[in-house]
Amino acid sequence: MTARPAITAAILAGGAGRRLGGRDKGLEPLAGVPLVEHVLAALQGVDARLIVANRNHDVYSRYARTVADTVDRHGPLAGIATACAACETPWLLTVPVDCPEPPVDLATRLLREALLHDAPAVVAHDGTTRQPLFALYRRELADAAAAAAAAAQGVWAWQDAIGARELDFADRGQQFQNLNTPDDFLAHASRPHSTD
């Protein structure tokens, strides 16, 4: 039996937090715990963890290796390019820091799809729409991601350009919910949560 290729999970935490008054979203408390801790706790089936952040490195580095965007133009694709360049395993899984409960089988299912179809990347689809920040990439895509980010290409368009496959996660659709505002944090903390 062939060993499963190793995966690094990168949490994308480089946003400006504009809808939170400029506060660092990943460090905002959710049920008394920084949001980034919820994301880290949910990640399963990965071999290493990485955080891409453009501030508060001293805090984030307590949780995992932390790097800043290496592409001048910030944005989600810059974070993906940075994570790919820093990745030391064959595969890179990306998740945004504002989603506290990503599916626990996200990495496993995306990798299975990638290997089955020899795909360069696989991105989750929640049953309604593509979730472009929940994706698995071959590490070798770092240069392509950096070039696309520098050219201000969007994540979705870049995924199409590299031939990324979509994988249906309709059974986990609610787990892709992201938190952007103080009201989102309050509402999430007060509702029942998935246990798997």
From TrEMBL:
CDD domains: MobA (cd02503). Pfam families: NTP_transf_3. Mg(2+) binds at residue 98. Gene3D superfamilies: Spore Coat Polysaccharide Biosynthesis Protein SpsA, Chain A. InterPro entries: MobA-like_NTP_Trfase, Molybde_CF_guanTrfase, Nucleotide-diphossugar_trans. Keywords: Cytoplasm, GTP-binding, Magnesium, Metal-binding, Molybdenum cofactor biosynthesis, Nucleotide-binding, Transferase. Its EC number is 2.7.7.77. GO terms for molecular function: GTP binding; metal ion binding; molybdenum cofactor guanylyltransferase activity. Transfers a GMP moiety from GTP to Mo-molybdopterin (Mo-MPT) cofactor (Moco or molybdenum cofactor) to form Mo-molybdopterin guanine dinucleotide (Mo-MGD) cofactor. NCBIfam families: molyb_mobA. This is Molybdenum cofactor guanylyltransferase. It comes from Dokdonella fugitiva.
